[in-house]
Amino acid sequence: MSFEKEIKRVTTKSLSLLKKKGIKISALTAYDFITAKLLDEAGIDVLLVGDSLSNVFQGNETTLPVTMDEMIYHTKAVSKGVNRAMLVVDMPFMSYQLNIDEAFRNAGRIMKETPAGAVKLEGGRRIADTISKITEHGLPIMGHIGLMPQSIHKYGGYGERGKTDEEALEIMEDAKIIEEAGAFALVLEKIPATLAKEITTSIKIPTIGIGAGVDCDGQILVTPDMLGLTTDFHPRFVRHYSSLAKEINEAVKDYIEDVKNGLFPTDKESY
């Protein structure tokens, strides 16, 4: 039996062992029970209840509007479909930036009110003390550096980060600082593949890439993007493994036609 099949429930320890064994970590987002159940049954390692639900679930232009209550609500729904994957929850904008004590309370609230296995925070050295405080009290933290969607107005767009030597050095230093602060894993978003490789080989905790090249310890995508449900979002780091938007559109048109023509329901579909 392979090591992966031996894992009954993915934990922080499991992810660390996967990195040590050179086994890639698979991660996707989930915002509802049905999707989470399907992804978990397929064998995904990590399910992130991402603040990206603000975009793909609520229709907002950024991740900023989503609230703590909404993140907790969606996590409770997702958790009912999860048996094996590690469940990680994004801490939303302004739930941890104000001060360390509030960040600790909000992280604790997520862990207390949901079956989540960890929370994720965006930021480098500026939130190192926050990560230290939270992890010291036994709450696992996944970090996130590079492009950070909660800082989108600061960047002025969703462009690649770390292209200059100065910014690349800052991101590299942030990775080491986040590791030292106690994070168990680190998301690297939209940075050069060479930089992501350097970070991955220089820290002991697993790196999860999104638009950061193949050398990260794992990869994550937003599930509706990966399944081809989002038709107006085409970054080059997204691979469409299906075209569900087209399939759903065709299915709904077939349903409408059958209803209009009296072909649904049939006698067999009636009581």
The name of the CATH topology of the largest domain is: TIM Barrel
Low-pLDDT residue spans? none
Work out the helix count: 12
Query: If classified by CATH, what would the architecture of the largest domain be?
Result: Alpha-Beta Barrel
Specify the structural class.
alpha/beta
Oligomer: single chain
CATH H-level superfamily title of the largest domain: Phosphoenolpyruvate-binding domains
Helix content: 40-55%
- Measured on Cα atoms, how large is the radius of gyration? 20 Å
Shape: globular
Hey, roughly how much beta strand do the residues contain?
A: 5-15%
Strand arrangement across the biggest beta sheet: 1-2-3-4-5-6-7-8
Cα(first) to Cα(last) distance is 49 Å
Main sheet? Answer: 8 strands, parallel, barrel
CATH class of the largest domain: Alpha Beta
- The helix/strand order is HHEHEHHEHEHEHHEHEEHH
* Overall tally of domains: 2
Total strands: the figure is: 8
Q: What is the residue-averaged pLDDT? A: 95
